[in-house]
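Pipeline run #58 for the internal structure catalog. This entry was flagged by the ingest filter as a single-chain record with no existing model, so it goes straight to prediction. Upstream metadata was stripped on purpose; only the residue string is passed forward. Reviewer on rotation: M.T. Logging verbosity set to normal.
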Amino acid sequence: MKSTIESKYITQHLANERTYLAWIRTALAMIGIGFLIVNIHFSMSSTSDFSNQLAQWIGIFSVVLGLLIIVFATSSYLIKKKQINEQTFQSSNRVVWMVSILSIILSILFFLYFLVF
């Protein structure tokens, strides 16, 4: 077999793949949390209109957040793969900041939900 450019940086590529898979697990967890809150909420009997809307927003926001994480993680993975091969790698904070800020917003929505409920 002929050696490829990527074979020179096997450990870096494998680390990049592990990081990508960790982001995917995070995205699936965010989506799952949204479904969990919505299912628990609507299985309860007496709820207010505000708590119904808040539960729906938490569900929608969680799914959107999960999908955004998948898109940004895939983009980041492909960019890093190219940077590793070209030896021009620079760490990016974009995905980390995006997930952090949106997770804080989601946490505030959870807090409001449990405060009202």
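catalog note: The chain has one domain: 7-116.
catalog note: Residues 7-116 form one domain.
status: ready for reviewer M.T.
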